[in-house]
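quick one before i forget lol
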Amino acid sequence: MRKFIDSIDTILTILEALESSEGACSVRRIEDLTGVPKSTAHRILQELTSIGWTYQDEDDKNYYIGLKFLSLANEWRANLDIVRRIDPMLRNVSKRCAQSAFLNIIDGERAVCLHKVESENIVRVSSIIGEGYAFHAGASGKTLLAYAPQQLVEKVLSQKLEAFTPFTVTDPEVLKEELKTIRETGHCETVEERDPGVAAISFHVELPGISTIMALTVAGTRFDYERDRDMWLSALNEEIGKPVSG
């Protein structure tokens, strides 16, 4: 394990040196900047180049940061901007509903939680940031899928839909109709579809200049939902309707 961690550290050190340099770097320059032996740096750079993380100029043989690295860096910066702009809205919704609130996005072909504000209730809904979950079960996944590219929608509908609880929708035709309704209303409500005893309301949310597909979700116990449903809807509606600073 120690050897594996050391290898990762060496790779990151080389990438950081390339990213912080003003231009291209030779293998010798990488050795000077990082202390990584020239032979090791050359081998790692060759491997990184083969998968698009670095680029080698054919003429001078110097190395640059690759498009894949830049793409991921830009995505990371965009996600940070989303969190910064959505955080006040998320906190207001959580406070008004006295429940956990989540910002969920589509990341490739996954639905993931990007940001969350958990309630202080003893019994509360939680989620792991960055963890993927099913599109077809739960309010946030369905809301994201309703606004997803058609290719992704068709892929999900063509697959076996796992039943997480007795209330999970596993019929593709039923799910297809639900997605249509979500697009018409802009939100989705589910009860015990993914986790027993849990209910949620999720709204599609857009930000100026952001193309990421997003859903803002409030989740709590089924009892809380049945008691406070109208208040959850009102809070989400009002917060999403407010201007979001850039």
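fyi The mean pLDDT is 86.
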